Each structure stands twice: as structure tokens, then as C-alpha cells.
Amino acid sequence: MGRYDVVVAGGGHNGLVAAAYLARAGRRVLVLERLDHAGGLAISARAFPGVDVRLSRYSYLVSLLPTKIVQDLGLGLELRRRRYASYTPKDGTGLLVDNDDEARTAESFRRVTGGEADHKAWRDFYAMIARTARALAPTLLEPLPTAAEVERLVGPEAWRDLFARPVGQAVDERFGDDTVRGVVLTDALIGTFADPAADLAANRCFLYHVIGDGTGEWNVPVGGMGAVSGAIEAAARRAGAEIRTGAEIVGIAPSGEVTFRADDGEHTVTGGHVLVNLPPAVLDRVLGRPADVPEGAQLKVNMVLSRLPRLRDASVDPHAAFSGTFHINEGRDQLAAAHAQASRGRIPEVPPAEVYCHSLTDPSILGPELRGRAETMTLFGLHMPARLFRADPEGAREAALRATFASFDRVLAEPIEDCLLRAPDGTPCVEVRTPVDLENEAGLPGGHIFHRDLTWPYTENGRGWGVETEDERILLCGAGARRGGGVSGIPGHNAAMAVLSA
């Protein structure tokens, strides 16, 4: 197959973004993907036989994807804003954050917290977050700033509370209600096993969850996540990139040689640059180097429901509660208890989790016969590290699902299992993925959805784009790059810019 200007190892959405930019710039680009489809984990799939629903099987919402990338590549995506940010049940009532009705949100805070102070603190805190997002988001598509430059950009308050000290300390100082504290802190724990009161890893996770595209809003991709990767793949192909699926990378050399295995045997190609859209631990392995395996920490449950579950809070329409993020036992103290139990190697007694229903905002993912008769529900469980599933993957998966459903039932007026749609063969439409499942099925070491722990969006020394490795011709273009993680395309863009500016 010969020589290319750039070989992209891994055809996930970031690799496709890099390929599209480079091919548009006239480079000869080859993308190699192990699976039989491009898109990596940003895909849609019909998970249940005989049920016409295109679930966003792994990644499911879009926040970090910059408008600039969408416009540059002519992606033509539709990302719908969610009116309701979140709903959090508490003692028969609940905290509803309505993006379009500040008075309703204020009244909900009064009902849950018993006063005005936490709502004022909420508005002040998220005003500071909004300023930080507007200042920081543009830098994500530029060469890395220094820490001092970021501190000047965001100001002393944001630097202190989001960068310099554990975010849990700032949240505890600003808010008095345990429920409100927990709602804020969940953004610090998505896919990250950390104690936000003591670990700055939680700060880094929090930052990437609140600065997306300068707004921090989490939007629904119309058509599901497969529409996002499909649009990027189409842009790369239009630009002239060559994409080969069913090609597993088995070797990468610092000289630019890439060896892959396909149905017709092993092949070697050479790139002037090799852009790696693989986890860093996988890159180390194919380079023949020792690899540090990270640890993912989430439980992903995909469901199709025959109806939305009833709430204990009759004042809130389930359609409002479930179209935003529905928090399940995610108070500050509940999060801390679950972290402590998981740290000791136990599945949390009351697992914290959150759900949302894609089909309430975008019913197009439902087949015609199911529209109005079914809804999708995605559950993301926190504090479920890979260590809990190593010894007995199947048994631990079942135990984690039972505990999570029991946790969910605590805040509903009826069991969630009573609401599950059944496939034609009678099986309930529920699919569970643990970190060990992601390791085995998707090739993510430790099941870490960000490829490794997230990093600060600045450099401590030097400049660069945050994609460089110790080998000059090998660049990271995936979630494991600095400023990686999530469905963003940012590391793909930055790796392409590093090549074009070389």
C-alpha cells in the first residue's frame, strides 16, 4: 500500500477529524481502524434484536465539539439544546433547573433547600463558570498556553476554585445544601474515580464538563452519536482521505512504519507522520514499551422503555425530569460514601447515577412504529472502578446492575424494571457495560473512557499543541492527548495543525 504523508492509527471521531483537516490541506492520508466501522465509540447501534431503536451506545451527548470544527469541515450537524438542565429528587420533591424559566428554578431551590442562599450561590458560581468557559474554550484550538497565561485569562477567583485547590472544597464553601453540592460535583466525577474534596483529578474532569464550546451546554445530537461520526467520516472521504476498516494496528515504529493485520494478512505502510488515535497504553504496547494501564470508573446502562416511570414529585412532569440530567442519589455525602466503599473494593450500597432520555429531545432515533410508544434511557453510574469487576466480571456486572436499579427505585414511584420495553423474544431491553467490558470489547485499557486521566489545558514547560510524543514523527490525536477526552474533535484538530505547522 506504500507511503503516505500521514497514517492515522484508529478511526474514531478524533482520527477522522485529523484526517479531514489534513486531506483538505492536500496531504495523502490513510486511516486504519480495527473495527468494521469508523467512528470508534461515538456510534449508534440497534442493541436489541427486533427493536428498531438506534441507541448512542457509548458516548451520548455533545458539549466539547467546537463550532469552528463543525463549520470548518462542513458537517451539517443538528445539535439540540435541552431546555431542562437537570432534575434531582429529594424527599418526595425535587430540584428542577429550567434553563428557560429562572423563576421556576428559584422556586424549586426554595422548596428543596428552604431558602434563597443556595440559589444565589448557584447563579454566582455558574456566572463565574460561564466567564471561564468563554475565556478558555478558544485556547483549546490553539497551541498550548502556559499556566500563568490561563490564570490571567480566567481571573483569580476561577483559578483558585477550579485549578489551584480541590473543587470539592470550593463547592462545600459556596453551597449549604447536600443535594445542591452533589448536583455540582457530579460533573467532576464522570468517568473519573476521585475524591473531589482532595483530588485535583476531579477539577480537571469538572473543567472539561463545563467549558464545552464556550457555553458548557450538553446538547443532543439529532440522529444519535452515529450522526456525528458519520458526518465527520463523510467529510474526511470527501476531502480524499482513504479509510480502511478491519485493520488492527500491531506495530508502530519511530521511523513512521505502521504494521496492521487484516483478513488478507499483515501489511506495512509508512507515514511522514503517524497520528495515533489509540490510548497511550496501547501505543506503548505496539511500540514495544512498558505500559501503565489506567482505570475507568463507570457503569453504562442502555435501556428502551415502554413508558417513562412515575415520579414521587407530582408537581414535575416526567418528560421535563428525564429530558435533562436526572440525578440519582448523588448528594455530596452519598457520593463520598460510594467513593469510600468502592475504594475498599466493594460495589457501593447505594450507587450514584444519572440518566437522560435522548428520544424526548430527538425521537428520530426511534423507528416509526415505536414513536409515541417507547423512549430511550441512558444511565451513567459513578464510582464503579474497573477493580470491582476484575475477579468476576459477569457476577459483578449483575450485582452492579441490581444495586443501581435498587438505587434508582428509591427515588421513583414505581420500579424502573416495570417500565422496560421487551424485545420480540420477551427479554427486557437493557444493556450493561462495565469498564472491563469496554476493555475487552473496545480495546480501552482499564475501560477508561478518556483513554487516561484528563490533563490540564495548559503546559508547564514549552509550547506545542499537546499532541507531541517522545518520537518526533508520532503524534497523539485521540482522547489521551492533552485537551483530549469526550466527543470533541479537539485533539484531532490539534494534531492536524501540528503536522501542517511543522
Structure, explained:
This protein has 502 residues and is an alpha/beta fold. The protein has 3 domains: 179 residues, FAD/NAD(P)-binding domain; 186 residues; 82 residues, no CATH class. It is 35% helix and 19% strand. The protein has 17 helices and 18 strands. The strands form 4 sheets. Strands 1, 2, 9, 10, 11, 12 and 18 form a 7-stranded mixed sheet that branches. Strands 7-6-14-15-16-13-17 form a 7-stranded mixed sheet, with helices on both faces. It has a two-stranded antiparallel ribbon with strand order 3-4. Strand 1, helix 1 and strand 2 form a beta-alpha-beta unit. Helix 5 packs across helix 6. It is globular, with a radius of gyration of 22 Å. 54% of the residues are buried. The mean pLDDT is 97.
Describe the structure using short key phrases.
about 500 residues, seven-stranded mixed sheet, 17 helices, globular, about 20% strand, about 35% helix, 18 strands
